[in-house]
Amino acid sequence: MGLFGKRATKTPKTATVGRFHTPYQVEQVLGVVYAGVRDQLSTAVAEVGEPGVMASIYLSRIDRTGLTVTAGNIADTYFTFAVDLSESGSGTDGHVYFDRPSSAVQRWYGNAVQLNVDLHTALDRASITVQGWRIQF
């Protein structure tokens, strides 16, 4: 029991990589985001996969709200890397983050770093302005 008789709940910590805004529509931005993560996927297809016995990096979400890349296997998730997209009156806003602080990413650390770098490069090539982008590994 926590303070005042309530059970304490643990809030998962995420690590924001950065945010961006673009005048492009969500579907166009999703294509750019996918191009930025594609090279790190074990199977480079734009469809949702599932963890297997062997560790891999796969899309666990891809839709109009963004995409999530997961690294791991059935027994363990090493990390997830997410890009959330939302429409605004002037285009699309994006929020990029890991599901845990970068210091907690131990397995497939190099892939986590490369996802970050490749996505930033793809956004830059599409002239999408990023805000507060951090590579803290």
Read across the widest sheet, the strand sequence of neighbours is 2-3-4-5-1-6
What does the average pLDDT come to? 88
Anisotropy-based shape: globular
Beta strand %:
25-35%
Give the assembly state of these chains: single chain
H-E order: EHEEEEHE
State Rg: 16 Å
Explain this structure to me?
The chain has helices spanning 26-37, 109-125; strands spanning 15-22, 56-63, 66-72, 77-88, 91-98, 129-131. The chain has a six-stranded antiparallel sheet, covered by helices on one side. It is globular. The protein starts with 14 loop residues before the first strand and ends in a 6-residue tail after the last strand. It is built from two helices and six strands. With 137 residues, it is α+β, with helices and mostly antiparallel strands.
Brief summary of the model shown:
With 137 residues, the protein is of the alpha+beta class. It contains two helices and six strands.
